[in-house]
Amino acid sequence: MKKGLLIIYSGPSGVGKGTVREEFINDKDLNLIYSISLTTRAPRVGEVRDKDYFFVNQEEFDEAVANNKLLEHASFVGNSYGTPRDYVEKMRNQGYNVILEIEVEGAKQIMKNTDDYLSIFLVPPSLHELERRIRSRQTESEEVIQKRMEKARNELEVVADYHYAVVNTTPKKAAQRIRKIILDNIKD
């Protein structure tokens, strides 16, 4: 059985990563499995424990880092995020193409430590549109919104480090482009 791809999927907060992912994640031709991340942040409305994230406390997270159980990890706005190494490798060894929806900081760690990955960066049509999307969620304070926008500006500077950049004008169009990218790389 051919080992599955490790797909790094990043973009600024509010760009629509989850919405776009939902458009292509169940496409049988892609043989995808979504990697569930560990996080110390509280669940948002509608998020399901052990489906959207593995929600843990800071002590449990720090233990995972100390024991090298994460492929990558990052902190943002007082919360920690990471990708469980064993889960990803188990799924890849079963032939699944594992998609990691991760922050740029975490993506850089993986890109630095391996060349066995496919990376896709989801780009907003504009910073103005990105801010509108973040505000429309109505889940963060003004201070957090400003931190997210500052981080987005910095993240957009690393787009060239990724194999592909896809503009999210509409989730359907972005998903079609990502689907083609993945299919092209499965064939290689």
The main β sheet shows up as: 5 strands, parallel
Number of strands: 9
CATH topology descriptor:
Rossmann fold
- What is the CATH C level class, in words? Alpha Beta
CATH architecture: 3-Layer(aba) Sandwich
User: Roughly what percent helix?
Assistant: 40-55%
Q: So how many helices?
A: 7
Low-pLDDT runs of 5+ residues are none
Q: Walk across the major sheet and give the strand order.
A: 2-7-1-8-9
Q: Compute the separation of the termini in Å.
A: 15 Å
Percentage beta strand: 15-25%
**How many separate domains make up the residues?**
1
List the helices and strands and how they pair.
Layout: E1 6-10, H1 17-24, E2 32-34, E3 37-39, E4 53-55, H2 58-66, E5 70-76, E6 79-84, H3 85-93, E7 97-101, H4 104-113, E8 118-123, H5 127-137, H6 142-155, E9 164-167, H7 171-187
Parallel strand pairs: 1-7, 1-8, 2-7, 3-4, 8-9
Antiparallel strand pairs: 3-6, 5-6
Helix pairs in contact: 1-7, 5-6
Provide an overview of this structure.
This protein is of the alpha/beta class and 188 residues long. The protein has one domain (6-187): Rossmann fold. It contains seven helices and nine strands; from the N terminus they run βαβββαββαβαβααβα. A hairpin with a 2-residue loop joins β5 (70-76) and β6 (79-84). It starts with 5 loop residues before the first strand and ends with a helix. The mean pLDDT is 92.
